[in-house]
Structure formats: C-alpha cells, structure tokens
Amino acid sequence: MSRIKHLAIAALVLTGIGAPAAAAPALERVIMRLNFVPGVEHSFLYLGKEKGWYAEAGIDLEVLPGQGSTVAVKNVGNGEEQFAIADTASVARGWEVGVPLVYTAMLLKDTPAAIYSLKSKGIESIGDLCGKRVGVNIKSTTAEQYRAMLRLANLKNCKIDEVPISSGGTKEVLSGAVDAAVNFVYTDALQVKTSSGQVNTILAKDYFKLFGLGIITNKKLIEKNPELVDRFMKVTMKSLRYALGRKDEAMATFLKISPSANVAYEGAKFDMFRQLLLTDDPTGNSVGKQTKPGWDATLKTLYDLGIVKSVLDSEGRFIPLKN
Question: Is the entire prediction scored with pTM above 0.85?
C-alpha cells in the first residue's frame, strides 16, 4: 500500500469518517396508566409525546387506558407500571394497607364528585333528593362522598331510593331510569348536559375539602431512580401547561388517539377540566403543586368520611414539584 493511501486511511480514522456511528442512548420505557379511558383531559400526555419532549428527556412513554383508580393503585403499587393518574380516596385506601405510593403532582385541588340530574327533575339542592331515585356506583369512591353529603345535610324524614349502577349514570339519567346519579362533574354530568342542554349539579366540594386527582408513582422508584422521576415530571408539567393555553392543538392531538370521540363533549370537557385545574390560581403557576396543610386536611376528611379507618400521616406521601 502506498504511503499516500496510508495517510488517507489514518485521516479517516482520526476524523471519524468511515467509522461506525455511535449508537444513540436507549430510551427508558415508562408507562403512564390513566384513571379512565382516554379523554381530552389527558391530551397533555399525547402532546408531549407527539412533540418529542419525552424522547428528548430519554423517555419512551406509553400511555395506557385506565379502568378506574383502583387498578392504577394496584399496578403502580406493585411496580408493574411507573406512573398513573388516580384519585386520593383510592390511593389513601392503598396507603392504609401499605402500598408504597407517592403523589408527584396534584391536578385537581378539590374533589370533582357531584350529584347531577336533568334540570327538568327540579333537583336543585340535596333536600330535593327526598323521594327520588339516585343512581350510585358502589364500587366508586364517589359513593362514600355522596353518603357523606347526605349526612352533613342532616335531612329529616327523607327517603331516597338508591339504585345500583355499574358506571357513571349517563344512560340511566337520560333514559329516566333514575332521577339523579353520582359521578364526576366533568364526566357524566357534563355528558348529560351536552346531550340534554341543561343539568343541575350538587357539588361535593361545597360540603368538604378534599384533594381530587393527581399523578402517583411508586416510592421504590423514587429511591431507585429519582432522576427518571424528575425528568418525567418536568416534561409532564411542561406538556400540561402548554396544553392549557392551546385548546385547538390539544383537541387535535386527542382526536388522533380517539377519532370517534364526541367533539362537542370533549371540547366542553377541556374547558371544565381547565377551570378545575386553575381553581385556586388562574395564572396556572400552581398547577400540580401540593402542600402539607392541604394533605393534612385531605387525610382528615377521608377519615371523617369513613373512606379510611385511621387518620394517616401526610409525611412521605407526596413530593413537591421542582418546576
């Protein structure tokens, strides 16, 4: 081989030209379990993934549909999935039996539970339920909140016919099978309003203070890989704040995931969920944040409502957001 060819090969090696490209670092697979089926309120997760923000943070995000907060608590608690959206009542029940869960962000600072009915039923206050049929899903923690509302209202000589239902009650309310039902104000109550035009709601938050819905992870994951938890939460909150100010973009991204969704309902749900997120701070600066006083009050309320059997200590139950 000529001296010129030797020099050319050496130059290629030194500059890296002609050498195999270095493999890109592998992304860490992370599962986020939703609290229920995908809705526009979850669009921030899909937006963050679509824009490549999770990938830029070294995360390969998979978003799985939910089957209620009980399933989320179970799967994150046993380490099968890394994160989930879940309600505080279900999580507190898990804490009571030793499930190692930690809240990394609180989305809804107030419970979204509500008793709802068609406006034509004339149920404007809790006393108007007397003599009526109310659909109650006994598997949902909204059932305990509904019964606590009744206790706090201290109704006298009031007979209510509770009808067991297996979901949120939309079908039963619209068909007249029940006069009212219990579920979240931004889901079934809003769906009935979208379908019928008018709905009455009696809000649980008017009776007691209780954190509603947030993002959970496993305490062991925080101990083992705190840097992953930090990266995930930074991107997630960035995506959430971005989505809040861009309804059209959030809707478009969500409809790619659920093209057959009811656009009118999901659009109204975006507006209501945004309002619930910003309930204590219209600027959005405190979205996701949680405090010890807030948790102490929530845990006491859960005990007072009978959802948990003892007053739990808030220490170690949540971590503050870093951004």
Answer: yes
